[in-house]
Amino acid sequence: MVASQVESREFLFQLFDVLDTGALASRDRYQEHSRSSLGAVVETFSRLSAGRSSAGDERAEALAGDSVGVVPEVILTLGNALYESAGQQSRLFRTRSEDLVAAPMAASVSAWQDYRALLEKLEAADLDAPQAADLRGRLLVAKSRSEAALAMGLYGASLAEDVQSHPEAERRQNSERLLAFLEPLIAWWPRQAAWLTSVSLGKAGDTSRIPDPGETSRLAREFLGQRVWQHQSHGLQLFLQSLQKDLEAASTQDTQQWALSLSETLQRAVKVTQGLGQGLQDGAEDRVLANASRYLHLFGEMLAGWMWLQQANAAARKLAEAAPGEESFYRGKLHAARYFFHWTLPEVAQDLVLLQNQDTTCLDMQANWF
């Protein structure tokens, strides 16, 4: 299967099976569109980025001129990321969420394309060999990280779309507050995922994807010190409420088990958050924020877990009706979700312990002791 077809299938799944972007066609702003026409735009972007454009594909380039409002924010965001990943120095479109999701999305798309490019070079027989289990493990790291990062950026853009065009005022406000809460996570986690994808693919020498430690620290302190508590923690409450819907939507034995794991982690994280909030009220800001990066990591992994639960729920639904040629795609999604919930999510246990104890090891270290 050529690269553009693989891209289209991945992006169409995330946009229409997970996020239900096709439903936007019912809004006044997109009344000229249908689910199929929006899907055609996504496929066009994939062909353009792969260098397989045709004369008819020039209409996608033309969108950049004066029709930005015709295509939903989430699709334009993907188009920009694909354009940048193809080596362009500028973006095709101006989007409302550009400052938040543009750079993380471009990094996510590039990392995912690196992962797919390596797969194209590998023989299936070699990958299936028992001695290749370690290689399969490294590829699972790349798949689970890069595809969660893609989902995270697209979800952020979908929230930005709801802020602008959802017909209900309450939904617009809730989307704005949830997006504000998630902003530090969306700005940091996909870039971290892109770096970890590079390492898993044997490209550790590519230092361009290493997250800036100073920026990570700033985002962490802003997240724990401000975003969690804004509007009486309404953003955090919306995060929990939105996630709860997908926990309840789990319908298979596997997805229900993964939902339970994520739910248990969330409950512990809420309890830890309450303790940290009390510490801030008591004036122990230095002690609480000393481990802010661990808190950012904790919530980033839970957000990634949510993205995988959404994908797993959608894949389970689609698998039940899939044609034989489509089964592998959905089984791959479910197996990557299994990897995340069995191998990655349990690692936040250390974050929970350090944060619950408000550990001061790093805070207590003195400069002249180094």
TrEMBL record:
Signal peptide: none annotated. It holds the Pfam family Acyl-CoA_dh_C. It comes from the Bacteria. Residues 240-366 form the Acetyl-CoA dehydrogenase-like C-terminal domain. This is Acyl-CoA dehydrogenase C-terminal domain-containing protein. It comes from Marinobacter lacisalsi.
